[in-house]
Q: What sequence folds into this?
């Protein structure tokens, strides 16, 4: 990763272990953007059979403005993040946009389910 940071031009596929020292001290400060991929990455073997999914979530890290633009506008599903900005969903209709939820009387933006607000005194539904 240090060589990629020094080079400053490329895209790295890594596990999205953001709590690690590498992410905190190297990747976040040096990258131009990160695409946290939806789901788990799967690779194919040379014979064409599909392998198991990765053991952890994955992220594509952009170094260089052109590579950041490529990841931000690509068709891969996930969440895009750059320094100093809110995370933005890319091609994931189930993730709500940044900001407060829409009021029940207002329609939700196209493709995003409306959030239901419990009535006064009512407990929100529990999820498993």
A:
């Amino acid at each position: 990763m240090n060589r990629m940071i020094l080079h400053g031009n490329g895209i790295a596929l890594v596990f999205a272990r953001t709590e690690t020292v590498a992410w905190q001290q190297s990747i976040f400060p040096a990258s131009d953007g990160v695409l946290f991929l939806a789901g788990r990455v799967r690779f194919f073997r040379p014979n064409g059979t599909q392998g198991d999914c990765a053991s952890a979530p994955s992220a594509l890290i952009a170094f260089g403005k052109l590579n950041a633009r490529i990841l931000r506008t690509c068709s891969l599903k996930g969440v895009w993040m750059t320094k100093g900005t809110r995370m933005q969903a890319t091609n994931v209709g189930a993730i709500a946009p940044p900001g407060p939820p829409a009021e029940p009387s207002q329609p939700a933006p196209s493709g995003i389910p409306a959030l239901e607000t419990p009535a006064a005194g009512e407990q929100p539904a529990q999820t498993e």
In short: Strands lie at 10-15, 33-37, 42-44, 50-53, 58-63, 78-81, 88-90. Helices lie at 2-7, 21-30, 65-73.
